[in-house]
Design brief:
alpha/beta; 2 domains; 8-stranded mixed sheet; 3-stranded antiparallel sheet; 9 helices; about 35% strand
């Protein structure tokens, strides 16, 4: 799709969200519930094309595009509106503490030998798929967490009680030297997509429901350019997503590794 087409779609999504929001908004409230069926109803009333994938409206507002300016204007200081799931085909605008997860600009970059097969780079279908493959083939989860992990499944669609359907980009299980077992949900963001605090909370809730006997560690990976990957371990404290650890890795051919830097990493 052309940039113009993408822009038109983003604008229509924002118009739909804005209309749904202000149908129920009253000053001082912090939650606004709506359902998936509200999307085609509002689209029709606005005279805009009804999205083929209704869920894409919510997905876009979570990860790709900003909330409409009029919705942002209602946010109290240090608060922001997010869209959370609250059941099957049900959603909620929720006012939460301002909570952005962005790569630091002052963090050291660690160079590691690139183990990504060239054929994977050639045929990756998009930034997210490419990033998941790079993380997997370069064992970045193992390197980042310091444990041994194994990928079980990617794009796992499942449900969380009280939330509804979710999708985990990739799910790993791991073990450490003491025999502790880990469940590691990974979200991958490429291009202009943003790391989602909503997705982090949902992933951790699902891990607690399904694998309460393991330790859950939520990981987010994001491209910085083409060959640099930011890795985050995220946790939830007082209903707010916090960064436990962040590392930046640059994938380079083995012959371009700096022997002095390798020694310095040990310090």
């Amino acid at each position: 799709m052309s940039d113009s087409g993408s822009s038109d779609r983003a604008n229509s999504y924002q118009d739909i969200a804005e209309t749904i929001f202000f149908e129920k908004y009253r000053e001082g409230i912090s939650n606004i519930d709506f359902e998936r069926e509200d999307i085609p109803r509002v689209a029709k009333s606005l005279g805009v094309k009804i999205p083929k994938n209704l869920g894409d409206v919510v997905y876009a507002l979570r990860y790709r595009i900003k909330m409409p300016p009029k919705i942002i204007a209602t946010q109290p200081e240090k608060m922001e509106w997010v869209i959370e799931g609250r059941g099957r085909a049900k959603y909620r605008f929720s006012l939460v503490t301002l909570n952005h997860v962005l790569p630091r600009e002052d963090l050291q970059t660690i160079r590691i030998p690139d183990s990504t097969p060239e054929i994977i780079r050639a045929y990756a279908l998009g930034d997210e798929q490419a990033l998941l493959a790079i993380v997997r083939y370069n064992r970045l989860i193992d390197i980042f967490l310091g444990i041994t992990t194994y990928s079980l499944q990617n794009h796992l669609r499942t449900t969380v009680a009280g939330v509804g359907q979710i999708e985990i980009d990739e799910l790993y299980f791991g073990i450490d030297k003491l025999g502790c077992h880990y469940v590691v949900p990974v979200q991958a963001k490429g291009g202009s997509d943003r790391i989602s605090v909503v997705q982090t909370k949902q992933d951790l809730d699902w891990c607690e429901e399904r694998f309460s006997g393991t330790r859950a560690r939520a990981i987010s990976a994001q491209f910085i350019g083409r060959d640099k990957v930011a890795m985050f371990e995220l946790a939830v404290e007082e209903n707010m997503v916090v960064v436990v650890e962040e590392r930046h890795y640059r994938l380079v051919p083995a012959k371009k590794l700096d022997s002095d830097a390798i020694v310095n990493y040990r310090q």
